[in-house]
What we know:
The protein is α/β, with parallel strands linked by helices. The chain has a single domain, classed as Nucleoside phosphorylase domain (Rossmann fold), CATH 3.40.50. Helix content is 26%, strand content 23%. It is built from six helices and 13 strands. The protein has helices at residues 68-77, 135-147, 169-178, 188-197, 223-248, 276-281, and strands at residues 2-3, 5-10, 21-26, 39-44, 47-53, 82-91, 101-104, 106-109, 152-154, 157-160, 183-185, 201-210, 251-252. The strands form two sheets. Strands 2, 3, 4, 5, 6, 7, 8, 9, 10, 11 and 12 form an eleven-stranded mixed sheet that branches. It has a two-stranded antiparallel ribbon with strand order 1-13. β10 (157-160), α3 (169-178) and β11 form a beta-alpha-beta unit. α2 (135-147) packs across α5. Bound molecules: the ligand CSC[C@H]1O[C@H](OP(=O)(O)O)[C@H](O)[C@@H]1O and adenine. The ligand CSC[C@H]1O[C@H](OP(=O)(O)O)[C@H](O)[C@@H]1O binds at residues 11-12, 54-55, 63, 87-88, 163, 185-187, 223, 226.
Amino acid sequence: MADTMIGVIGGSGLYEIDGLEGAEWQTVETPWGTPSDAILTGTLNGVKMAFLPRHGRGHVHSPTTVPYRANIDALKRIGVTDVISVSACGSFREEMAPGDFVIVDQFIDRTFAREKSFFGTGCVAHVSVAHPTCPRLGAACLEAAKDTGINVHQGGTYLAMEGPQFSTLAESRMYRDSWGADVIGMTNMPEAKLAREAELCYASVAMITDYDSWHPDHGEVDVTQIIATLMGNASKARDMVAMLPALLGSERAPCPHGCDRALEYAILTAPDARDKTVMAKLDAVAGRIL
Ligand SMILES: CSC[C@H]1O[C@H](OP(=O)(O)O)[C@H](O)[C@@H]1O
Ligand SMILES: Nc1ncnc2[nH]cnc12
């Protein structure tokens, strides 16, 4: 069995985690550029863990400029097996209230100004993202959140918008009423797609901060309200993360859902037609099969 290494990508309001033994900020360079920040590595209750603040410490990167490919490559490169993405989100459902967490299991990708794949000319691959999150990892997050006493909802569709502006009222109503989205954020795409290409299990934990702009009693979303809710959410998220090592264990059986074998039949470019420079860039992401 392989060693588990839990990688936590911290969203807005979650820029570090405490309690890691042997904690060290590690600088990692990748063929896709520099990640959002150094990666905090160490062990928690005997399980290897890595933490990467998505926007960088000090919140430097906007949702559009987050270096998603570098982030996922860097996590894979240092040995991460399971990625838990923690994100601040607006809610389209009355019952998913600010302060609650949602274990997201589907996405609608409305982003348009980001690099979305490690593959392309010189090495073409098509992975399935029909089920973009890992049920095994999602179940562990659900249990960790429940054990922490968080009001958590199992399953939800996350609408990924480009931002950085929030949605118009018409968009908010359309996402909620016609498209059936449950939560909205700006960062989980292409992160989830890239994690699948890199054969990493990926779970997304949405921390609800607001009701976006559809709710008649809550008015429009504003960032001061989001930050106020985030202050409470961040400590809950840290407590949830602390439960994960015990639930996942230090040794890991292959993913029963095949996340860690996603590239098995995905590469279409014939071996003799593959571009050597492109192949070199894929050393961490696709090294298992190349
Ligand atoms: C702080 S409000 C908008 C900002 O918060 C979310 O970031 P993240 O997903 O990294 O927690 C949202 O997607 C926006 O980027
Ligand atoms: N309402 C919202 N829309 C997009 N991203 C968000 N992040 C937190 N709240 C959000």
